[in-house]
Design goal:
Elements: H1 2-21, E1 32-33, E2 42-48, H2 56-65, E3 71-74, H3 76-81, H4 83-91, E4 95-98, H5 111-126, H6 146-153, E5 158-159, H7 174-184, E6 190-193, H8 201-216, E7 220-222, H9 224-228
Parallel strand pairs: 1-5, 2-3, 2-6, 2-7, 3-4
Helix pairs in contact: 7-8
The structure holds zinc ion (ZN).
Amino acid sequence: MRWLALFLGLAVCLAGGWGLSKSQRVQLFGDLITRIEMSEPRIALTFDDGPSPRFLSGVLDVLDGRDVRATFFLTGQEAEQHPDLVAEIANRGHQLGNHGYSHSRMILRSPAWIEGEIDRTDAALRARGFEGAIPFRPPYGQRLIVLPWLLAREGRPVVLWDVEADDLAEGQTPEAYAQEIIARVEPGSIILMHVMYGSRDTARAALPLIIDGLHARGYSFATLAELEG
Ligand SMILES: [Zn+2]
């Protein structure tokens, strides 16, 4: 019986820790941002992962064609592989964000490993002279103890999101995905989208629909820095 109680206790702790690591509301150290409190109809569009040479320019053209500035959370590894793409994102007026170096979960790791993930990615984003603020978003949105503690020491918040929809769901269409996103947006929302890899056709096709739909509802788009401004 005692072993059963111990096992159950451990299972509850693990489940609690996993839940906490993905929480949109609670974090043990530092600031957590999922939305900016405001009444003006302004929002931030954020893209995770990449940059990928195959899909970036199409995404940038959609944004440019609609005069939208967004925020790109890039992995350090891909940023190192494609410095020209990083520079292009920044030169076209978008904000760069740090999404970890290797896109590994940043929980249950040593402080040195986590610090390396953060610092190598910052360096890859700064390599071509990008000087703006670099917000941080952990892979899978997960953080537990060491990561928030390290970021809090630098006065750097964790930036998550308040709006997303599942573009990979079975039978998902660009129209339905766009409608879900549009319906969830409110002033100050931070939208998360994935548009960098081959599996993300639905999200890429939905991008112009989302922007046009939100423009039609009176929303304007800002980078995270502008939204926080
Ligand atoms: Zn990611």
